[in-house]
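Quarterly update, task 2.4: adenosine-5'-triphosphate-bound model.
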Amino acid sequence: MRKSSVETKKLIIISKSPKDTRSIGRSLGDILRANDILCLYGDLGSGKTCLTQGIAHGLGILEEEYVRSSTFVLFNEYRGGRIPLYHFDFFRIDKLDEIIDIGFEEYINNNGITVIEWADKFPGILPEKRLDIELLIDNLNTRKILISIPHPDKRYNNIFMSLKKSPRI
Ligand SMILES: Nc1ncnc2c1ncn2[C@@H]1O[C@H](COP(=O)(O)OP(=O)(O)OP(=O)(O)O)[C@@H](O)[C@H]1O
Ligand SMILES: [Mg+2]
């Protein structure tokens, strides 16, 4: 039996520098719409935050707003772009309750774009409909970025197809 093409799709992008990764993020930021959810996976230093900076840039969030915020908090909200960006980092979160207390469920349905670093720490809380982005460290400056859709969905399929056509990728 043939599987639906949406299920089997995986986009593999090679990034050769932090600049490349930011540029991929920018392409995503250009495409994204309110209520889109992106889950990021990958080891320490694989480039999840770097990619998110690019997304912020693509949304028109000024670098000043981005650098002003702490990288060590569990959650940051950026309102200076064309759509709000809700940036979660589950790395330092020990209990699911902490995510609930921050207001995760409210944020993901609050007309912004949600990006979650270390999303695999709490797989049970992730919505089924989302874009998964895995970053793998190849060597010092090279990263393999794997983009996939865990559950077939029209909206995420559209993002996927737009990304494929993006001139920066
Ligand atoms: N191709 C690349 N893409 C992204 N980062 C790269 C690349 N090559 C080297 N780097 C370096 O890797 C590091 C990535 O850091 P970043 O904070 O984005 O990772 P992270 O996945 O968010 O880590 P953490 O899990 O600690 O939050 C930076 O120091 C960056 O300069
Ligand atoms: Mg990070």
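Highlight for this quarter: DSSP finds seven helices and seven strands in the chain.
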